[in-house]
Amino acid sequence: MTRLSVQAVTKRFGGVTATGDVSFDVPEKGVTAVIGPNGAGKTTLFSLVSGFLTPDQGRILFDGEDIVGMRPDRLAARGLVRTFQLVQLFPDLTTLDNVKVGQHLQTRSGLLAAVLRPGSTRREEAAVSARARELLALVGLLDVADQPAKVLSYGQQRLLEVARALAAGPRLVLLDEPAAGLDAAESKRLAAVIRTIADQGVTVLLIEHDMSLVMNVADRVVVLDFGRKIAEGAPAEVRAHPAVIAAYLGGVEIADG
Amino acid sequence: MADPTYIAQVLVSGLGTGCIYGLIGIGFCVIYNASGIVNFAQGAFVMLGGMLTQLLLMRYGVPLLPAAAVAIVVVAAMGMLLERLVVRPLWDRNATMFVMILATLAAQIVVERATLLAVGDQPRTLPVFTDVPPLMLGRVAISVQLLWILGASALVIAALTAFFRYTLAGKAMRACSIDREAAALQGIPVKRMLALSFALSAALGATAGILITPTQYTAFNVGVPFAISGFIAAIVGGFGRPLGAFLGGLLLGLVQAGAIAALGSGLKNVAALSMLLVFLFLRPGGILGAAK
Amino acid sequence: MKTLRSTTSPDWRSALRLLPWGLSALFVGYGFVAGGYPATVIGFALVYAVFVTGLNLFMGYTNQVSFGQNAFAAVGGYMSAVLTTTYQWPVVPAMGAGVAAAVLLALVIGYPTLRLKGHYLAMGTLAIGLITYEIAVEWQSVTQGYLGISGIPPLGVGSYEVTSDRGQLALLVAIVLASTFISARIRDSRMGRAFLALGASENGAMALGVDVARTKLLAFLVSAAFAALAGCLFVHVVGYVSPEVFGLHMVILGFTMLYVGGVGSVAGPLVGALIVSLMPEVFRGFKDYQDLAYGAALIVILIYAPRGLASLFDRAKARPRSADL
Question: Which positions, given as ranges, span the membrane (chain B) (predicted)?
Fold first, then answer.
């Protein structure tokens, strides 16, 4: 089964083609990674898939349904949840409350229930708390649950964003460079988390710069360059692909060197 | 009602106030372009211009033109003071747009109340600049004050155009409006531009206030309605386009004159405010499209 | 990282968190003991506390801009005033109708207005407040223009009217406590978290399925209801209403109180309203300079203590659970 199908999607800003006629499929199972050098159009692609941008051309199918033009919150309600490259946490809320916001769609209580707090709302709140703690334990942030998100280290904030996205109960989660800024231990934790998510049946699509993470966790890799797909396949195949070596891997070594 | 002379007369008077709104609207644009700030204290300059001229003239017997000139310079200085005391500290602290708006609105109130304490709440007016009978265009009377307004507005716009086109400071301000960071990298003193834009904008407001006072009146609390009208002019013309703002002002003046003729002067402000909401809801980019 | 459980350690930090409440209790207690004029001043402060609680919900929680809350206070206040005087309605249903009318108005104008951003939203809401003011002046057949409406009955239920200073104060205390309680409960709930989330990052909230437009509108409606309630309380406590009550003065005063007390905190509106209302009483001759001083104070706070007095408490505590109760 195909979870997500990107079909001939094009997005231009002024005269610049950010994403040009890109097509690829994301299978229901496993972890798919989109890689490419900076400016390859990865983040634009994510914004198109998650409804923050609308493509000029092409179709995007999520579980067989065309989702072009749908608002991000509607997509989240359908089970498509993203994280951001520049973290979009709620800095003054506690770590725990950040994850609780992630469960917005899982819960129903309105304003009246907030004020009157009937039994059903109290039970819902208790369940929300328990689930939030579970997710924080998964990403290793339980001991900072009561700290405001803004005091967390950058790596912790990235992990929190992942936990928060999972709280929304996605069928497909889009992770935008989740390993950026993580230290080695955090990066390892993240890889384990991503594997766990995938094993629980959630489809993972990630954009990543960190090739070691991609090679470790991805089942399939899509390579973009200048807004076009230049290769697609298993990590080992892609790594050996001449166009990829030319366009990307070489460039990264120079850039990182 | 449908008397063409009457309608023409109404439109002529709308043209005069329209010019004033246009000048105030340009004042909004000048600051906005230089800094991205919307100065909600703009009306204070308008009020102060008229008020200071009136005081100099009536209390100290300064002749009109020197009094107006002094008032414009003083108000420009006050614009810089506002920038220094209120805007710059917030700017340096990266205050949000909302905080900046609230602070300038508070500054408006402070100026208003200080004026009330200093000169009381009596409405004051200025004599017309030249006391000659109105020109008759057919049966439509055109007051000489209107000619002063039209002439001064044309002069101001010509001067501004020359300033932005030919002077170094003007070019620097235009550069700021296109891309502030790039301008800063090019060595343009962005903060000095901010101060200059407040001075310029205050001078524009004061000029507008002086021109309109003979046909209406001034009091401590006329600032906010004028500011709103100027803001409407700026929005109608596409925020950040000085010429658009002037045209927007003319349009607003005509619409408002029409509303007064049809509904009575009590609903003058309601008519202007409703026009603002219509534009905000339906065409926030204005007639010409926003500059950015 | 170590966890701080402030609830189990009754140290000076949690004591500091109670300071705003203690301060408020002290002021209100003084009003009770003194009665008369001090009770009236504290009563006004409490009415404003309700208004600012609504402002805080919309601005402090969802981080949106409204310079037009006076519109809802005016609609609520005038509706209740007209219904009780011209139409002889009892007070409670009239106030209910006033609040309902204001919420309805908020619904109608909120839909197009809340789509605006930045200075457009600021000016749009300001315009709504000013239009309401102008209408209150011009619609003389109903509002009697600048003259105002007098002889508005005091608060009370049925034939029981609260007329004494102390009785009125007690009633207002109860209403303020209820408002603050509602505000606190909302803050710590699913919808409250959605308010705070979209206030911090609209994109972040949207990505998690929060319907941003709807949630903003909801916060707007609640804040309008508080503003309208404050408007109703005002006219019945004073017994008189004129357009001046709901002018731009009310907007600046409300913001000053909100910023003095602390934006986004639960206790802020109450403390802010009390402190700002008492300022003119403490300083002799201050009255003439009231609005001037409020405006100047607001500017100074915006520059030097943008989170209000609450930020001073915050700096002292090492931020355990951020409920600024």
Answer: 6-30, 37-58, 64-86, 98-120, 140-164, 193-212, 218-236, 243-264, 270-291
- Amino acid C13: pLDDT: 65
Question: And the tokens for C29?
Answer: 């207690």
**Cβ C212–A73 below 8 Å, yes or no?**
yes
Residue B87: DSSP 8-state: I
Token representation of residue C245: 């009550």
- Tell me how far CA of residue C32 lies from CA of B122, C170, C270, in angstroms: 41, 8, 17
- Does the predicted interface ipTM exceed a cut of 0.90? no
Query: Could you tell me which chains touch chain A, where touching means 3 or more CB pairs under 8 A?
Result: C
Q: What one-letter code names the amino acid at B23?
A: L
For residue C247, is it left (φ>0), alpha (ψ between -120 and 50) or beta?
Answer: beta
For C210, which of A73, A82, A83 is closest by C-beta distance?
A73
| CA–CA dist B30, B23 (Å, integer) | 11
Looking at CATH, the fold of the domain delimited by C25-316 is given as ABC transporter involved in vitamin B12 uptake, BtuC (1.10.3470)
Is the CB of residue A139 less than 8 Å from the CB of residue A185? no
Per the DSSP assignment, residues forming a β-bridge with A94 are: A148
Q: Which residues 122-151 of chain A have a CB within 8 Å of chain C?
A: 124-125, 128, 143-148, 151
Cβ separation of B113 and C291 shorter than 8 Å? yes
pLDDT tens string B6-37 = 888 888 888 999 999 999 999 999 998 888 88
Q: By the CB < 8 Å criterion, does C194 face chain A?
A: yes
Class of domain A2-91+156-256: alpha beta
Query: A165 contacts in C (CB within 8 Å)?
Result: 207-208
